[in-house]
Amino acid sequence: MNHRKIDRRILRTRRALKDAMLALVLEQGFDAVTIEQITHRADLGRTTFYLHYRDKEELLLESIRELIDDLVAHIRVSNSSPILLAFQHAAENADLYRIILRGEGAYSAVERLRKTINQTIEELFKEFLQARADVEPDLIRSSFPLEVVTNFLAGSLLGLLTWWLEERPPYTPEQMADMFRRLFLDGIRETLGFVR
Amino acid sequence: MNHRKIDRRILRTRRALKDAMLALVLEQGFDAVTIEQITHRADLGRTTFYLHYRDKEELLLESIRELIDDLVAHIRVSNSSPILLAFQHAAENADLYRIILRGEGAYSAVERLRKTINQTIEELFKEFLQARADVEPDLIRSSFPLEVVTNFLAGSLLGLLTWWLEERPPYTPEQMADMFRRLFLDGIRETLGFVR
DNA sequence: ATAAATAATGAACAGCATGTTCAGAATTAT
DNA sequence: ATAATTCTGAACATGCTGTTCATTATTTAT
After folding, report:
1. pLDDT tens across A64-110, in order?
2. Model pTM greater than 0.90?
3. Rounded Cα distance, A182 and A177, in Å
4. How would you class B153 by CB atoms within 10 Å of its CB: exposed for 0-12, middle for 13-18, buried for 19 or more?
5. Do B179 and A144 touch (CB under 8 A)?
6. Of A77, A98, A190, B97, whose Cβ has the fewest other Cβ atoms within 10 Å?
7. Do B158 and A154 touch (CB under 8 A)?
8. Phi, psi values for residue B62, rounded to 5°
9. Which nucleotides of D are covered by protein (CB under 7 A)?
């Protein structure tokens, strides 16, 4: 591990730049933020920025990559439901999630998040199928396209997260995860109690 | 109606600007496109642009507003399923839908589209409840938050549309609408055939 | 067909953010 | 303490933006 080798100044500078960027993007939107504003708020010279990042985009993408890695790590480690973990993670990092879900930054980070979610769902789903293979062998042969399911789920999760973070309805992560689970497992017919 | 009053030159110019913009955004991404490129491809002087629009953003937003108005109009007029209409509309205007769903442009047009879909779902849903009020009076009193349902549905629809337009799997609008309908009505448990 | 009205043009200009260079100052590691 | 690294600020070139204005071209109205 090369953890002790990095010059403190570098760590401090990059952290300051990320924090400044985050605050400014929330205040003004990504496009309106200038490098000068970022370095000024971070109490750094403008030239210093270019010693670390090529442009605004790269700085934002680094923050987002770290966030997504952190979410994936949580899911891998914890025993709780991945859905619950996602809502909790979003609540704890609400600012950055808002920036991502608003589609700030040129090459939309939502798509990166969407792909990660899709992939995670697919893995979890296949694990589930393996575990159930002896109980319901027909399940694996289901003709319904898996990609349609994962994209349906990734979309609905992102939709609920967006609404939850922007409109701030008074639901806990647990409640959100619960409602989401009911909707996608049993559909709105059963969940809302339609006569069939 | 002031349809015959508008100078032809204006109509031609605006159409040319929109077409040029659309092509360029698909080629290079919104941020990389310059006003000069747009007017050059449209065979117009750069100054002409500013006689019609304040900036790139405004030009793109006008196209998007027209597209969404068109979708809403189709849904209001036609008797087919709104879901099917949405997939068909997306297929017919794939380029613009891709631009929207990629989140191109500063103030993300996806959010405008999302709000429109949410609103439409809510209206359709309330109509449905009214129509069924005598058959299942309990339905209206369902305690499940309506907004959660509409945002769940809007998200999953946008998710499927994004995947469909970007990855171009060989499904027809009819097939996509069908799969979507099954998933949200009955959930993945029933749709995929899990033992309960 | 002609005149009046309107739109498009292109050159010129100011403003501003970007990104780079470089020599010197400040900080950190050894 | 000193060698290595990082930060700094001034200076500069570049490219896009947005505006002005006198001129030309096209359209509409009569």
Report:
1. 999 999 999 999 999 999 999 999 999 999 999 999 999 998 777 89
2. yes
3. 9
4. buried
5. yes
6. A77
7. no
8. -65, -45
9. 5-11, 15-21, 26-29
